[in-house]
Each structure stands twice: as C-alpha cells, then as structure tokens.
Specification:
The structure holds two protein chains of two kinds. By secondary structure, chain A is of the alpha+beta class. Chain A has helices spanning 2-24, 34-38, 41-52, 96-111, 117-142, 171-185, 202-223, 244-261, 274-283, 306-310, 328-333, 368-373, 464-477, 481-495, 505-515, 522-528, 532-535, 593-598, and strands at residues 73-75, 291-295, 324-326, 374-375, 380-381, 384-385, 391-396, 399-403, 437-438, 459-463, 548-555, 566-572. In chain A, the strands form five sheets. A four-stranded mixed beta sheet of chain A has the order 8-7-11-12, with no helix packed on it. Chain A is globular and about 115 Å long. The chains are: A alpha+beta, B mainly beta.
Chain lengths: 608, 224
C-alpha cells in the first residue's frame, strides 16, 4: 500500500515537473534566428520591406516643415519662424546600424537554400542598391565616410576594437563605390517596372549611378572654382578637379542608358492640358510612365500627411489645413511660355497697379508646370476654384488703401473681404500666409486629407525627367552644347514652353529648380554647384534669400472703373522675417564628437 | 541600551557626513578670460549665431570632446573652468583671419587672461558713422593686412540693438568691387519701416575677404 502511494506521488510529480520543463524551453516568437528568417522566402521578403521603410531622408512629403526652410515654401501655421541659417546636422544621415543589417541580410540571402537563383540575385541587388543609396545619402551631407564592404562586424569581449575602426574614405572614393555598386548590380535587378515604382529596378540603379556621378562631377568642378575650395588634407571632403571630366562622362552614359531603354518617357498623356499633364506625371500612380523609383504609400497602414496638412481651407475635410504654402520666389522662377522673365506683373512702368479681371489672369501664359506644381489664386483644385483674397482695395484721396477681415468675412454688401483661405498676415493657424498652396503631391482622392484616412500619395525619388536633365547638364559640362540643348529642350517642350536656342549654366540651374520643386533636389543641387552661399546670402530683402509672398486683393470701390477687378501686392512674408543665410560651414554636416570618440580614425570636417 | 543609542548615532553621523563629498564636485570657479587680437587690439567680429568659436581641449581624458568657447562681437571670450592645463585652438577656417591652428597652451589657475593673436585679412579703423535724416554716412579706413587678400564686399549695417552684424541688422548695404583704403559710403534707409520705428539705432561697418567665412567689423557706433 505504501509503495503504491509513493509510486503515485512520484508519477504525479514527474508529469508536472516535466510539463514545466517544456514551458521553459519553448522558442521565443518575437526573436527570430537567422536560420528561421533565411529559411523562409516570405520572411526574407519582409526583412527587405523593412529596409525600404527606413531609407527616406531629406525633404519628403511625410514632414511638411522642411519644405519651408529653403526658398520653395513658407510656413503658414501659427506665428513666424525666426530661422535664418541651417543646422550643422541638417538632413545628416549616419546609419551604420542599417548598413550592418543590410550586410547581415546579404550574407543570409547568399547562403539561403530556399530561393531560386534569379530571386536570390534580385534580392542581393536590391539590398546592395539600398546600401548604395544609404552611402549616397550619407555622403552628400558628410563627404567621404567609412566604406565597410560586405563585412558583418561582431564584437566579442576583450577583442581589439581598433580592427573595427575604419577611417573615412575620400569623397571621391565614396562616389566611386556608389557608382561601381550600381554598375555591378544593375543586371541583378528586374528590367520591368515594379508596382508603383516601389522596388528597385535596373533603371533605378542606373539613375542612382547617374546622380552620384553628376554630384561628384560638379563637386570636382565647382568646389575648385571657389575662392577657397572646401577640402580636407586627406580628401575626405573635396574632389580633385581633374576627375570632373570622368564623372560627367559616367553620368552622361548612365543617363543615356535609361533614356534609350524605352521603358520610361516624359509623360505626355494630356497635350491639351499641360498643367494637368505635369501634375499627373508626378502625382498620379496609375499608368505612370515617368517615375522610376518612389517611396510608395498604401492605404490602410502606410499613409502620409502632406495632403492633410497643406490642403486649402476651402477644400479641407478635417480640422488640419494650410500648414505651409509655396512662395513667390519659386512662382517667379517659372517662365512664361514665350518670355523667360517669369516675373508676375503687378505694376506698370509708372508704378500703377495692373488690374486683372480674374485673379488667375495674372498667371496666364505661365509655364504650365506652374499649374501642376502650385495652386495659385483662382486655380481649380478638385473641380472648384481656390479663392485666395487678402482683402479689398479702394481708392481714397488718390491712394490705394485696403481693408481686411477675419478669414471668410464679408462686407455690408455681402462681398467677400478676406477669403477663408487667406492669405493673411496674422499669426492664426490654418490660414495661408504666402498666397499659394501646394499642388504637386496633393492627393485628389476623397477624404485623403482626413486624419482617419490620410493620403497614399507616393514620393518619387527618381524619374525619367531627371535622366534627361542629368544628360543635359553632363553634356553641357563636357562641352557638347548641341546635345545639352537637345535634352533641355525635351524637358521644355513637354512642359509646353518655348525651346532654347542655346544653353547656359544658369538655364540648367533654373530648369532643375522648376522641374523638381518639392522633390528634395534644390538644397543638394545648390550645394553641389557651390551656389548655396551666393543665393542664400543672408541679406535682408534680397530677392532670393528673403521669402516673398503675393497678396491678391479685390478692388471694391463702387464707381471706380476697376471695381471688381484684382490687384496684387508683393511683400516679404511675415512668417519668415529673416533671409536665408547659408554659411560656408553648411556645405558639409559636422561630424558628431561621439563618432570620433568611438572611432578616433574619423577626421572632422572643415569649419568644425 | 545606551550602547545601541551610541551605535545608532554613529551610523547617522557617518552617513550624513560622508555621503555628499565623494562624487560631487564644486562647480568650476576659474575664469578664463581672453580676446582675439591683432597687434594687441581686439578684433570686431560677428557675435551672434555662435558664428566665431574657439575650442579648448584638455589632454589626459578618455574622450576627446572639446569645450566650445563662443567669441563675442568685441572679440572677447570667457569660460568658467577647472584649474588645469588646456589647449586653445581656433576652429578650422572660422574667422576673418588667416587660418592657422597653432595651439596656445593655457595654464589655468584662478582667473587667467589669454590673448589669441591672429592675422586678419583686413582691419578697419578711424570709423565715423553719422545719421542725417534717414541716410547713414560712414567714413572709415580699410587696411589690407594680408597682401594676397581681396575684398569680397564692404557692408554698412544698422541695427536697433547694439548687436550688429551681417545676420543681425535691420538695414544693410553691400558694396562690391572696392579696394582697401579710405572709404566714404552711405546707406539710404528712407522707406525702411523698421528703421523708422526704431527707438535706437546702432551702426557698424564690415569687410569680408574673398574666401573667408566671416567678415571683420568696426566698433559699434550709436546713431540715435
């Protein structure tokens, strides 16, 4: 009897204890081993998707504020922004964590047995493309940075850490590495377009190659033309002038490879409505023929707030609206169809107002790309006009005076005084202060501006027009003016403006500015051409460095022959009272002291 | 029983008396005071936006972080530090002078004065700024110190506070293509609403050398 009891107790104990052991030994379900990840094709793809989500740097549509710090747009939200200069770490990218993850991924993909060769090659190509893109984004801010190849670094206690410390590469070597990586992987990548241009293709790799080469070429060229070229003794910053030629040739060849592929084109589906056509070439994904690589968004889950933040009040679907608006500086850089001086004509030679029957008449015959880039006073958005009216003007004692009201206010005759859209010079939220709204990247989908839905507008990183512009720029710098002219005129004829008879450097600068507004080009372009310190010179009321607004007024003066017409005032925006001041130290981001402390081989940048 | 009381008292005293001293330092007390000079004269600089800086390094520590020292518009700087040996250097290419990064060793013990001698590209002297109506007239001398230097621009600046430089001003006019020597320039501020409404006006002139990241300035003169 006793023995039986003991056996029962023992067996009960045995079962309960062994149950526990199982519980403690189960596999974690949130940490996956390399074998688990790289033993499953779906898992491999999700790791890659994660990388695509970590590579949006610089100016982009998920953050509206950085649009207002250059000379493209101004803040409309709340009170003035006293910004004048640029931070030492403005758009600085230093992501060796991502780099290590990419190299881990590369190792796993190369060793995995679950993929067919073609997929394996494609994934390797995409990872290396993303890695090259990362280096490019680091390099354009910081100059040459340590190139670590495919190595996955591991640290074990007690090891000599100096073997993990790589010195900075030269700026030229970094661009060379990006160029050679793009060349090496281009045939690993698909030739066909990816869905919504979200994944890398051969053409994206060639675009990165072309852009890296033209950046390197212009740094080699224009840095050495400065009174005091910016460089370090070891070449971490600054590229020798004699390399310019080679880089421009690489850029031209890569751009022409994209151009001759026939996969993409300067989209022209609505030749009768060039403004609309330009908008759709950039901001509509369906059947797009122009965009080569984009940060795609998808509802639900992956959405951005650009439309929600910046939609005009009259068209808003939620409480958010009018965070920022484009400025006159940009609008006037758009030419007229047959006149290269893009100035908006507000006064005649004698200083008297020019009266327009409708507000939008002031923009008649402007480059149609203006319509596709900004919403100007009276322009149509989603089927109805966007009324921008600062106030009413009336003549009193021979002097034009104006009255304003709260947004949406009307006078005794029920005539609008100040539009609900603004522009105003108050510090109120949600009302425009610059006279223009964004159109490029504004989503026309219903409820795209609500907090509940937001927008799945994409953000193109490379598009065919850039291949054409890089070809034009490189050909120009290589002293092939005929070729440069052909390419720049392709851009201009798609836009719908007169062709050029000859091409100058300033023509190229201007064409980039208007074609690629809000596409994260302007800051980097002015930096590589070493123009930033000249254009953003910090001088109060300078036509370029100061932000300017255009205020439309309705003439409301019964008896006056111009009653009911429109006049315009150009004023410095009160939202950005200080002119932009790009100092010499801003050409390269500062190296963070912590990086030097961790790796004494890293040298600092000039002016630091 | 009394024994325990004594032990308790001892423990309390021991804890209160010792716990503070070990890991808390007194705040630094030694004042380093200095100026950036040419021929013993302090230089006029931009004093806003952390534009002109010096760097202090101290050897013997694991990290190499430098202490940033910000220079004011009268060319002086100040830092509160611990006693010890420091190395003072200018920042690479920062300032309206020839870029030299020679180390100045500073032995700090109590209040210490230090001079940082530099060779500016240009200097300004004999400045005389006057206001007549809304026009500012400025007479001054620009001396070329470095033979190879060229003037990028000469600038007249007016501000409503005594901080005046190329980034802090309400009226500014740049003159290009001028040579060193005596200058007689004017700035018309009629129609400038900020100037009209200002209770006080301060003026300064500056010269920027080609390739330099900063201009050098005269002293500040009160106009109004």
């Amino acid at each position: 009897m006793n023995i039986k009891k003991i056996i029962i107790i023992l067996s009960v104990a045995l079962f309960t204890w062994s149950g526990c052991a199982d519980f403690l030994e189960r596999e974690p379900d949130t940490i996956l081993s390399d074998d688990q990840v790289f033993g499953d094709a779906v898992m491999i793809k999700s790791v890659l998707a994660n990388f695509y989500g970590r590579i949006t740097w610089g100016q982009h549509i998920d953050d509206s504020y950085p649009y207002t710090i250059l000379d493209e747009a101004s803040k409309s939200d709340g009170g003035p922004d006293t910004r004048q200069g640029f931070e030492d770490d403005r758009w600085r990218v230093y992501d060796y964590t991502l780099l290590r993850n990419l190299n881990q991924f590369l190792k796993g993909v190369r060793e995995t047995k679950v993929l067919d060769i073609a997929t394996q090659k494609q994934l390797e190509g995409e990872a290396r493309f993303i890695r090259a893109w990362l280096y490019f984004n680091m390099g354009r801010g910081l100059g040459g940075m340590p190139i670590v190849g495919d190595e996955v670094f591991e640290y074990a206690t007690g090891m000599d850490i100096t073997v993990l410390q790589y010195p900075r590469s030269t700026e030229a070597a970094l661009y060379d590495y990006i160029i050679s990586e793009c060349e090496a992987i281009k045939d690993f990548l698909p030739v066909d377009k990816s869905v919504n241009a979200a994944r890398a293709t051969k053409w994206a790799a060639l675009m990165l190659k072309a852009r890296a080469a033209v950046y390197a070429g212009s740094i080699a060229n224009y840095n050495n033309k400065m009174a005091q070229p910016i460089k370090t003794a070891g070449g971490e910053v600054g590229i020798p002038a004699n390399l310019a030629q080679g880089y421009y040739q690489t850029a031209l060849a890569a751009a022409e490879e994209v151009i001759s592929s026939g996969k993409y084109e300067l989209q022209l589906t609505k030749p009768d409505d060039r403004g609309r056509n330009f908008y759709e070439a950039l901001s509509v994904k369906e059947n797009n023929k122009e965009v080569i690589w984009a940060r795609d968004y998808k509802y639900p889950g992956q959405t951005n707030g650009f439309t929600q933040s910046n939609i005009p009040a009259s068209h808003a679907e939620d409480i958010d609206r009018a965070y920022a608006g484009p400025i006159l500086n940009l609008v006037e850089d758009f030419e007229y169809i047959n006149d290269r001086n893009g100035e908006i004509k507000t006064k005649d030679a004698n200083g008297n107002y020019i009266f327009y029957d409708k507000a939008e008449d002031a923009f008649e015959n402007k480059d149609p790309r203006l319509w596709g880039t900004v919403i100007y006073p009276g322009a149509i958005f989603k089927g109805t006009p966007v009324v921008l009216q600062a106030g009413q003007k009336y003549l009193e004692g021979g002097v034009w005076k104006f009255r304003t009201s709260e947004p949406g206010g009307r006078d005794n005759n029920k005539i609008l005084i100040t539009s609900v859209n603004g522009p105003t010079t108050t510090n109120n939220q949600f009302v425009n202060k610059s006279g223009f709204f964004f159109r490029k990247f504004m989503d026309e989908t219903p409820s795209a501006s609500t907090r509940g839905r937001r927008s799945d507008m994409w953000f193109p990183r490379f598009r065919y027009a850039e291949a054409v512009m890089i070809a034009a720029e490189a050909a120009f710098e290589l002293n092939q003016p005929g070729k440069a002219l052909t390419y720049i005129n392709q851009i201009r004829s798609r836009a719908g403006i007169q062709p050029l008879a000859s091409v100058t450097f300033n023509d190229i600068v201007r064409e980039y500015r208007v074609e690629f507004a809000f596409e994260d080009h302007r800051y980097w372009d002015l930096k590589r051409w070493r123009l930033a310190d000249k254009i953003w010179n910090g001088v109060q009321n300078d036509p370029d460095a100061q932000q300017w607004a255009l205020f439309p007024y309705l003439v409301s003066d019964p008896g006056n022959p111009n009653n009911g017409k429109w006049v315009f005032d150009k004023i410095a925006t009160h939202m950005s009272p200080n002119p932009r001041y790009f100092e010499m130290k801003n050409y390269y981001n500062f190296i963070h002291q912590d990086w030097v402390n961790n790796n004494p081989k890293i040298v600092k940048n000039p002016y630091q | 029983m009394k024994k325990y009381k004594y032990i308790l008292l001892f423990v309390i005293v021991a804890f209160t008396a010792t716990s503070c001293g070990l890991d808390n330092y007194d705040a630094p007390q030694s004042r380093l005071h200095g100026k950036i000079t040419y021929n013993g004269e302090a230089l006029g600089l931009r004093g806003t936006g952390q534009a002109v800086r010096l760097q202090l390094y101290q050897d013997g520590y694991q990290l190499r972080d430098n202490i940033e020292v910000f220079v004011g518009q009268d060319g002086t700087f100040e830092a509160l530090l611990f006693d010890g040996e420091y190395k003072l250097v200018t920042r690479d290419r920062n300032g309206p002078w020839v870029n030299t990064r020679d180390t100045i060793v500073v032995n700090l013990k109590g209040a210490t004065e230090v001079e940082v001698p530099v060779t500016p590209f240009f200097t300004i002297d004999n400045e005389n700024m006057t206001l007549s109506g809304s026009i500012m007239n400025a007479k001054f001398n620009v001396n070329k110190i470095v033979n190879t230097a060229n003037i990028d621009y000469i600038t007249l600046l007016v501000s409503k506070t005594s901080f005046v430089d190329d980034a802090t001003n309400i009226a500014r006019k740049d003159f290009k293509g001028l040579q060193a020597g005596s200058q007689n320039l004017s700035l018309d501020m009629s129609g400038n609403a900020n100037v009209a409404s200002a209770k006080a006006l301060f003026a300064r002139v500056g010269v920027r050398a080609v390739g330099a990241d900063q201009a050098i300035y005269s002293g500040v003169v009160r106009l109004k």
